[in-house]
Amino acid sequence: MRRVVAVSTGTFFDTSGGLAREDAPVSKHPSSDPYTVTKMAAFEDAMARAAAGQDVVSTHPGAIFGPSPVASNALGLTSFNRVLVSALRQRISQYLKFPVSWVFADDIARGCILALDRGVSGERYMLDGRPEDVVSIAEACSRICELAGLDHRVEDIEPSDDPELAKVFGPTLVAIAKKAQGEQSPRRDLTESKTYKRLGYDPISLDEGLTITTGWLRQIGKVA
After folding, report:
1. Neighbours of 97 (CB within 10 A)
2. Is the pTM above the cut of 0.85?
3. 115-145, pLDDT tens digit by residue?
4. Rounded Cα gap, residues 156 and 174, in angstroms
5. What mean pLDDT value characterizes the chain?
6. CA-CA to 127 of 20 to 30 Å: which in 9, 106, 188, 222?
């Protein structure tokens, strides 16, 4: 059977021991939201198959944004593209604050192909954006507006136990934001990561990706 590249998330790894996320253990106390629980279960199943001899690698993208040949999927209700569109339309002024590793869609596709061609069975690879581009959703929204020539800006909302936040943003984002408050460790240089060394993965900058995305959104008539 050909190699399988499983695509997951990076929200359930425990980096408190100092290990990079490519090698860190799965958290013993992960968030209990449905997204994290189901993604972690699928990851553990994939790694069990690799341990049993199947050729499986896993990739863990950050926040995917950018053009797609299927715009309806790329602009789904839970997509990061959708949030960026709302900012460009000046329909949001605030967003829950947590650090986001923004990754251009084409880079994720390239990263998965690199994992298919160069990866090692049983390993995981973090398809993050550049470390300097780890910013909140509000900041990314403000940057895309600035790059598009708009005066509109979006402000951060600090996470709290306010039940209204869960109603507006959902339990998964609130759980991620509250967890991030206690994890302020900086991302290491991309060239020091196992993902870069093994795959040669090298994503474009956030501003470059936002500029391309704005052009695409205008082309398909989603923003002026």
Report:
1. 18
2. yes
3. 999 999 999 999 999 999 999 999 999 999 9
4. 13
5. 94
6. 222
